[in-house]
Design a protein that fits this description.
The chain has helices at residues 5-14, 19-26, 30-37, 45-57, 64-71, 87-101, 116-128, 144-151, 175-188, 203-218, 239-250, 265-277, 311-327, 365-373, and strands at 76-81, 106-111, 133-136, 156-159, 169-173, 194-198, 228-230, 259-262, 287-291, 305-308, 336-339, 342-344, 362-364. With 375 residues, the chain is an alpha/beta fold. It has 3 domains: 5-62, 434 Repressor (Amino-terminal Domain) (Orthogonal Bundle), CATH 1.10.260.40; 74-173 and 311-339, Response regulator (Rossmann fold); 175-309 and 341-373, Response regulator (Rossmann fold), CATH 3.40.50.
């Protein structure tokens, strides 16, 4: 047995500890040790603790290459996002990693920089690494890259952004509800000339734009083209400067907008900077709503009203779906999980006591949809 400190030191210094060594040392089978590593449910807590304790004592490092040969799995999940800096995607990545870690999986993260060609290359690299499942917030304009993934028989999940007509697993928020919620809140605050700074040609931006138009239409208002400005090809990595420039243009229109619904929080931050630089007040002159509810939204010069996209829950649900796809014994039908957004009201929209909404300062997407339907 490997019981003495001297023997442990010898093993640690001279030869790598094998799964077989752990099994012999504890009088267990290698199958049991393997199941502990994989977080298998039929291993008792006492046995699991004994195995994990001995692994820690002997500094055991699993041989993932050998493990992959035996199980047919790489025990990795690949995540492709448009931007590594944006906190929204960082929160999703953190939630995925936390959920899969306990099942013996590791997360490989890469960025497309909003470049469809770079995204295709990164997907090819992850497929070459034989990741067990892909999670993608895509910058693609077509579905060809997903056909390639399907040819490799690698399960994949789209997050945040989806494609019409593509039957794929998806986890994200209801973006049309986001647009309805943000615009209706500005209407409730007394805004009558509401602008929208929209994102790139992705499902998120298109859905929020549609929600904005629907909210205005419910009030009998025809959207003015000069009050809808695009942020450009990327609404994530260049949001703040793009929001600043778009707002400068909006403030030159006559009459000026008195409310702006922004594609996301970085865009809203740029919008607020432009408003303040113009010598105007937030929210008295121009109220601003963002989207994302990033962790710093409450600590800006003017705290930003924002719509929470449930980023942590998106990550958790994507991870659970990924694990279920890996463990499925047969092909399953694509699953779509739409989460309800939530309005978080702060100083950037609270214009006056008379205009403030009564009651709670939070509203969910489900209640927003019902409220709009009653109009």
């Amino acid at each position: 047995m490997l019981g003495s400190n001297q023997e442990r030191q010898k093993v640690r210094k001279n030869t790598p500890v094998r799964m077989k060594d752990i099994a012999q040392d504890l009088g267990l089978s290698t199958v049991t040790i393997s199941k502990v590593l994989r977080g298998h449910s039929d291993i008792g807590d006492e046995t699991r603790k004994r195995v994990l304790k001995r692994m820690e004592e002997l500094h055991y490092q699993p041989n993932f290459a050998a493990r992959a040969l035996i199980t047919g799995r790489s025990w990795t999940v690949g995540l492709v996002v448009p931007d590594l800096i944006h906190p929204f995607y960082a929160q999703i990545a953190k939630a995925i990693s936390a959920e899969i870690r306990g099942q013996g999986y590791s997360l490989i993260i890469t960025s497309s920089e909003e470049d469809p060609e770079l995204e295709r290359q990164e997907i090819e690299q992850l497929l070459a690494r034989r990741v067990d499942v892909l999670v993608i917030a895509s910058a693609q304009w077509t579905v060809e890259s997903f056909r390639r993934i399907e040819e490799q028989r690698t399960p994949y999940i789209l997050i945040d952004r989806q494609f019409a007509g593509l039957p794929a697993n998806f986890v994200g928020v209801d973006d049309e509800a986001v647009g309805l919620m943000g615009t209706n809140h500005l209407i409730e605050q007394g805004c009558r000339r509401i602008a929208h700074i929209r994102g790139p040609q992705t499902s998120t931006a298109l859905g929020r734009l549609e929600g904005y138009k629907r909210a205005l239409a419910a009030q009998g208002v025809v959207p003015r083209p000069e009050l809808i400005l695009p942020i450009g090809l990327s609404g994530d990595d260049c949001g703040e400067p793009g929001g600043y420039e778009a707002t400068r243009k909006l403030l030159q229109t006559t009459p000026q907008p008195d409310g702006i619904f922004c594609y996301n929080d970085p865009v809203a931050m740029g919008a607020m900077r432009a408003i303040l630089d113009a010598g105007l007040r937030i929210p008295e002159d121009v109220a601003v709503v963002g989207c994302g509810n990033l962790h710093y939204s409450n600590f800006l010069r003017v705290a930003l009203t924002s719509i929470d996209q449930q980023s942590a829950e998106i990550g958790k649900q994507a991870a659970l779906l990924a694990l279920s796809l890996v463990n499925a014994k047969e092909t399953v039908r694509p699953s779509v999980k739409l989460l309800s957004p939530e309005l978080i009201v702060r100083a950037s929209t609270l214009r006056s006591k008379a205009a403030r909404p009564q009651g709670k300062t939070k509203r969910t997407g489900q209640s927003e949809a019902k409220r709009t339907a009653r109009r």
